[in-house]
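Figure 6 in text form: structure in, sequence out.
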């Protein structure tokens, strides 16, 4: 897990280009999603974290975004109900 405020913008772009970062998340809400998610783009920099994989996000206690990852979110939701 990489925190957005701990990484420079140029280093972040390089990591995304090299596929070292594939998902973003909100540290306070414990939600992760794709990097293109409109909901994720609105969050504050100090709350944003990045992950290499879905497994990394899940290992850190994050759940899928209901906006950009609907099938994964439904599976997560159905598993809890």
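Output sequence:
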């Amino acid at each position: 897990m990489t925190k957005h405020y701990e990484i420079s913008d140029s280093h972040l772009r390089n990591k995304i280009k090299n596929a070292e970062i594939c998902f973003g998340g909100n540290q306070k809400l414990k939600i992760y999603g794709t990097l293109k998610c409109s909901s994720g783009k609105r969050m504050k920099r100090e709350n944003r974290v990045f992950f290499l994989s879905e497994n990394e996000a899940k290992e850190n206690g994050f759940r899928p975004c209901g906006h950009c990852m609907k099938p994964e979110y439904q599976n997560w939701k159905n598993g809890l109900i």
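Caption detail: Residues 23 and 50 are 6 Å apart (CA to CA).
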